[in-house]
Design goal:
Radius of gyration: 16 Å
Largest sheet: 5 strands, parallel
Strand order of the largest sheet: 3-2-1-4-5
Shape: globular
Mean pLDDT: 94
Number of strands: 5
CATH topology of one domain: Rossmann fold
CATH architecture of one domain: 3-Layer(aba) Sandwich
CATH class of one domain: Alpha Beta
CATH superfamily of one domain: NAD(P)-binding Rossmann-like Domain
Structural class: alpha/beta
Low-confidence stretches: none
């Protein structure tokens, strides 16, 4: 199987971390965004030639654009872009602060949109590639007390 280069957001835990682990073990290159390098120190030490961890907060649109530009220009080709960064926020809508609501929308929805929007011109120019959007069961069904989280996942 040909080795691939992946750009994955949110690789410090959960699906992103497990996906990164499996891809690195099989010999692929992963550019995995994090907010804290300490959480991926094992990958940095074990895979110094095939794991790169730019620090990116996906709520920062300018940071997403700069990272995508830099990654595509540095590596020439990205085979797969994975929009994975996200988190859960649970509580009745009227109990959540405006800041909490804005932050989860910026992380789970707007960040994903901006990552894909920034990547598409490069994928078109290189003649292809894959986009994977990680969501959750929360994007298919809704439960009481999770309305804002579900709104971001349905989005």
């Amino acid at each position: 199987m040909a080795r691939k280069t992946w750009l994955i957001t949110g690789v410090s835990s959960g699906f992103g971390k497990e996906m990164t682990k499996q891809l690195l073990e099989r010999g692929d290159t992963v550019i995995g965004t994090v907010r804290n390098l300490d959480k991926v120190e094992e990958f940095i030490n074990q895979y110094p030639d095939t794991f790169i961890a730019p620090i990116v907060d996906v709520t920062n649109i300018d940071a997403i654009k700069v990272t995508v530009d830099t990654v595509f220009k540095t590596y020439g080709r990205i085979d797969v872009v994975v929009s994975n960064a996200g988190y859960g926020l649970f509580g009745a809508a009227e109990e959540l602060s405006d800041q909490e609501i804005e932050h989860i929308i910026a992380t789970n929805l707007t960040g994903s949109i901006q990552l894909i929007k920034s990547s598409l011109p490069y994928l078109r120019k290189q003649g292809g590639g894959r986009i994977i959007q990680i969501s959750s069961y929360g994007g298919q069904v809704a439960f009481p007390g999770n309305s804002i989280y579900h709104a971001t996942k349905w989005g």
